Amino acid sequence: MNRRLLLSAGVAVAATVAGGYTLLGQKSRPSAAPADAGDPVAALMQLQLPDLNGATQSLANWKGQPMVVNFWATWCAPCVREMPELDALQKKYPNIRFVGIGVDSAANMQKFVEKVQVSYPLWVIGAGAIDTLRKLGNPSGGLPFTIVFNADGAINRKILGEIQVDDLEQTLSGLKA
């Protein structure tokens, strides 16, 4: 009985993940992994991700600038709580690029921003991003997950869980544009 229950649960989880990824549609899927997929940071920088208007975006376009990359989801309460704080920091530090990368569907994110607006861009990576998060140093694949990059593209800091504004601000104030 237990084996059948475990097998059924495993199939249900796999179907849910596959179904969620399929629901994202072709435009919401990240492009194939770049040739340098062995380096997770380089792979992240080269990903082609859609914004909420369907236009393709890439962190590589911001090369040479410090960045804050926040992985979030509409269903993640700590993610939603920290968004106004990230928005305020983005306004305070205009020389630092902020982006929210949604581990969610474009449709969910579009509905969400009708209620909670932020001034930084939101891109869609979809439910299949857990492996990407793990490769970037988030073993549990948990959300929110924030990475601060120096202008040279090196990781300055990783924050798993909700940001602490004063703590993140101290990091941001030390970044050179």
Automatic annotation (TrEMBL):
Keyword Lipid metabolism: no
Pfam family, one: Redoxin
Domain of life from the UniProt record: Bacteria
BP term (GO), one: cytochrome complex assembly
Highest classification ranks of the organism: Bacteria, Pseudomonadati, Pseudomonadota, Betaproteobacteria, Burkholderiales
One term of GO molecular function: disulfide oxidoreductase activity
InterPro entries referenced in this protein's UniProt entry, alphabetically: Redoxin, Thioredoxin-like_sf, Thioredoxin_CS, Thioredoxin_domain, Thioredoxin_ResA/DsbE_sf
Gene Ontology CC entries for this record: cell envelope
All residue ranges annotated as the Thioredoxin domain in the record: 22-177
Keyword annotations from UniProtKB, A to Z: Cytochrome c-type biogenesis, Redox-active center
Name of the molecule in the record: Redoxin family protein
Claim: Transcription regulation is one of the keywords in the record: no
Compartments it resides in: Cell envelope
